[in-house]
Amino acid sequence: MKKIFTFIALFFCLTSIYSQSKITLTANYPDATFYKVVGNEIIRPALGAGVIVLKLEKKELNKIILVKEGFQSVIKQFPRTNKWPKEVQVNIENRVVDVSVEPYDAGIYVDGQLAGNKTHKLIIKKDASLTVEVKKKGYKTESKIFSNKIGKETPLTSSIVLKDKIVQIKASPVNSEIFVNKISQGIGSAEVVIPQDECVFVQVKKDGYIGDEKVFCNKEMDVDPPLNYQFKLTDRLVKIESSPDDSEIFVDGKVVGVGSYDLKVSSDNCVEVISAKEGYLSVKKNYCNSKDYQEPPLRDHIELKIDEAHRQSISTDLANVNFTIVVNPEIQEIDAWKLLGSIVTTEFDVLEVIDKETGYMRTAWQVQGFDGSTIRTRIIVKLGDSNPLKYVMKISSERAEGSVSVKDDQEFEEWSRILKKYKNVIEEAQSRL
Q1: What is the pLDDT at residue 131?
Q2: Labelling 64: which of 155, 212, 246, 364 has CA 20 to 30 A away?
Q3: Domain interval for residue 62
Q4: Is 167 part of a structural domain of the chain?
Q5: Residue 116: which region, alpha, beta or left (left: phi > 0; alpha: psi -120 to 50)?
Q6: Do 337 and 359 contact (CB within 8 A), yes or no?
Q7: Cα(118)–Cα(108) distance, rounded to whole angstroms?
Q8: Whether the predicted model's global pTM rises above the 0.85 cut
């Protein structure tokens, strides 16, 4: 019987030790507030802030929640059946930042992982940092780092607004260089940022091509810039230099430059260029921008050679012009005709036509070839008047490019010069008649 009473006494003694009626809860922040929780419901009013004495109810979990603005709440439960210290420290440590973004459909990424759109409740563990990025196609990505460390400020809320627009630029040919506001941004492709309320000037350049340019704006009243834009350079550019440096450059028959010219050759077209200077042989070149022809050069140097025909000729207003010779009245017509024949045949061996009755005489063409040109010359004499006696004489002087036959009439053009050896024919006829 004595043993039974001893066991009962020991049981009540142990029960009194483990069946505590209350404990003291201390928060690590004096303004952190304790609330009682029943099921999933927070019971108000609050139990207190900083330090509370929690009465442990039988048959309950004695669940509490510790709340502080800017922190992740902590839930603890203290069943009375467990042994608890008289004082329990409850720490609230993880920080919470309410993040909102604009545009609302922009993606919120936390350390590279998509966390949602529009808003996100960011939880930062003690002594940790998180990087938040906000992304939307067509906008420059914005990012912020949030820390939960001593000495680092952690905001309660943060609004991240995407303002700067982005255009993905691609260029063709792929090795074209892209410039933004005259500063190189890359080769072939570039991500062009357009700050809010500003415009940017984009250029695409490549040697041998006509560049292209465009202005993109990010202003309230302007049309939104495109997400993607492609520049295609198709027109070619040939930088032409000609020497002598005062030689003229012709395109489509018009002088477009002297000494140098930047020639534009449109896609699927050819352009004829002539470089010319008096006293030099002209040079004609064709530049084509087509798959069917050789690719035009980036640069081309045209060097003119001295025209030997020019050096052996004189410029005169007698070339290809009818010149009237009034015969001295003391000279008989028959003698005048003979004298004319003698003068003409001194320089021209062959008379192609001679008719004394009509007073018409025409020599055959005399041809002299030079490096780069062919010159043909002949004299035509015809009766101008009988009373007083007059004859009309003309030196026909014509020039053709290259070496051609004298019979290729379509290749010859009138030349404003005559070869030096024929320069005295008309003067002699005038003097002697």
Answers
A1: 96
A2: 155
A3: 2-90
A4: no
A5: left
A6: yes
A7: 8
A8: no
